[in-house]
Amino acid sequence: MQADNSSKDSEEPPAGGQNQALKRFYSAGRGFWGDVAEATWNDWRWQLKHRITTVEQLERFLPTLTPEELAGAKLANHKLALGITPYFFNLIDPADENCPIRRQMIPRIEETTTAAWEMSDPCGEDSHSPVPGLVHRYPDRVLFLVTDRCASYCRYCTRSRLVSNASGYDFHPEFDKQIAYIAAHPEIRDVLLSGGDPLLLSDEKLENLLSRLRAIPHVEFLRIGTRIPVFLPQRITPELCAMLKQFHPLFISIHANHPRELTTEVRDALGRLADAGIPLGNQSVLLRHVNDDAEVMKAHLQKLLRCRVKPYYLYQCDLIAGSAHLRASVSRGLEIMEQLRGHTTGYAVPTYVIDAPGGGGKVPINPEYVLCRNAGRVLIRNYEGKIFEYPESADGQPCGQPPKEIAEPELV
Ligand code: SF4
After folding, report:
1. With the CA atoms of 205, 139, 137 and 327 taken in that order, what torsion angle do they form, in degrees rounded to the nearest 10?
2. Whole-number Å distance between alpha carbons of 411 and 86
3. Spatial distance between the Cα atoms of 65 and 59, rounded to a whole number of angstroms
4. Would you kindly state where each structural domain of the chain is located, as residue ranges?
5. Set 154, 241, 307, 317: catalytic member
6. Which of 110, 168, 227, 351 sits at 20 to 30 Å (Cα–Cα) from 390?
7. Does residue 170 carry a catalytic annotation?
8. Prediction pTM value
9. Which of these is catalytic: 99, 150, 241, 307?
10. Which of 327, 307, 329 is nearest to 319 (CA)?
11. pLDDT for 268-284, tens place per residue?
12. CB count, 10 Å around CB of 39?
């Protein structure tokens, strides 16, 4: 990666400390593609066309492949395709086999091991699908799957059963049927476009789809879930932003897991979306040896705020088949959350959730801050471990005793 030499360098935090180093913005650079013309490099279609998709390319561009990676790469295209944009590939550190980008992108032989509790559809989406490509799991909102393609493929993907079509899922969304279902269900006020990645559609196709959804009177709110700003910031063109801003209220949830993913290119792409008035949130997945470290996570979340993105969810990694080597424990996630709440800006703290296995939906999980609760009082602990009492009372009635800090909890 190349350090950012733009005028924005003056906005960089002062040097010193792991947190500050992780929060610096760098360009991904050009790496093996140094002789490609600037305009070509910045053409998102060129980036897609020149993705690393074969073992032979991988061996050429990453000669430090481990035996586990090589064996995994040879089998990958039977399960979830290998695909990495040249831009994103440049973020891989060839000297570090535990590089956080490498762990997310390069297949490993461990993917072929499936534990008894792992599933191909861990969130039970297929059983909540009234028409192909639509998931209606919560009462007032639907997930609208637009495509099975992504700019690059994450080895822990929850939808790896269908994404990239490597395992023969034969995904065929039917926009007419999906839209007809939404139009016939007035309780649906919120539509989340996802996939695969909706921003891989051409501007024209996406505009047509958004227009049809906006024409449904009871659809109040549109959302797009995308990893494109991170994998392919070149796709966030001024034309795309101008088109999207016609459809407010429109929110975008990006997906970034490690501060290294937030380059100068990504920061600028996100700035273009924010300037188009699009509220931005981020979803991270807690991943072993990627971001399961409180300092790394804190730097990531703070850096997202600097990119004008609100950290939204931190997901416990779903029980996707062959992902055990990438899953961090729930205990680890709770330890990290404990070191965030109160220790940094509240806007930087995401909601940590487990998507209940089999289709129960998102369940927020938190360190225990409520120590005891009864009809008379609530005992709470703050981020420093200090314990406080808050009087409980019937709604609207005066409290009995003033709240106070207490030295020891009296659990009753
Ligand atoms: S971008 Fe999203 S849908 Fe695509 S492979 Fe990654 S996690 Fe899966």
Report:
1. 100
2. 58
3. 7
4. 2-112, 126-364, 370-406
5. 154
6. 351
7. no
8. 0.93
9. 150
10. 327
11. 999 999 999 999 999 99
12. 8
